[in-house]
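Request from the bench team (R.T.):
"We need a structural guess for the complex before ordering more magnesium ion. Sequence and SMILES attached. Just send the tokens back."

Command: build protein-magnesium ion structure.
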Amino acid sequence: MADSRIPTGDGVSPSVPPVNGGPKGTPLLQLRGVSKSFGAVQALSNVDLEVHAGEVVGLVGDNGAGKSTLIKTIAGVGPADTGEFFVEGQPVKITSPQISSRLGIETVYQDLALCDNLDVVANLFLGREEREYLRSLNETDMEKRTLQVLRTLDVKLPSVRTVVASLSGGQRQSIAVAKTILRNAKVVLLDEPTAALGVAQTRQVLNLIRRLREQGLGVIVISHNLADVFEVVDHVTVLRLGKKVGTFDIKSTTAEQIVAAITGAEFGAILQETNGPSEGI
Ligand SMILES: Nc1ncnc2c1ncn2[C@@H]1O[C@H](COP(=O)(O)OP(=O)(O)O)[C@@H](O)[C@H]1O
Ligand SMILES: [Mg+2]
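Reply to R.T.: structure attached below.
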């Protein structure tokens, strides 16, 4: 299970408690005041972000806005310089991918990190040495578990013994996401999951994201495709030049407003109105 808590290290509570008890309760994952620089480049300045169980949050922004850098701080691949992280209200320090994973956070990168020469089952259980309950499974168990997870996600494949190289882009994305489910993810981070996909496959992946939401997971999805964003997310957080412009409820926001936030156009007044008090969500 992914419920082991990583202590904050210094044992000191944050000065301000995380936001609790709102209509949606404690976020599964909350970031506050996250900053990170690469030499002279301030890639992230004081960014807040949160995702609740059963919620899909879109992360959008122009090239270089800091989206991937932000995801990497959560994934433990490129830890933040400063900032507070909370998982289900508990302060955590995410200093490595292993810690991120142990906290129930799984990331699907654009390259998907699948082994083309192996079949679906083998890909799903690669790296199972990290999980005791996965390690204990035999081939028949693994095949059963694979079918079960794929059914949960409504993914259809010719056979789970198909070599991954022969699958479509959408199916490959599905396998990468199924892997996060097997690892008991609570929060799934997706970096541009539809970037390389055609229309039908994009549809498949958007459906997959909906299934994750139905399963009660929190999903953070980076996308430059606003049509995708509008179809599947509940909230969208816009980054611009490493700063959070705002978090918008997708139901009460137009594509023009999002574009304005991304580009920093002069729609500021409209955005404030829609977004309510500057803190978003
Ligand atoms: N490893 C790195 N070394 C130096 N600069 C980086 C590195 N990663 C990202 N950056 C810089 O940080 C900023 C944010 O980049 P990134 O997070 O990749 O943006 P996005 O994913 O929104 O396109 C950019 O200015 C980028 O050049
Ligand atoms: Mg990026």
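Two things stood out. The mean pLDDT is 84. The domain at 29-274 is CATH 3.40.50.300 (Rossmann fold).
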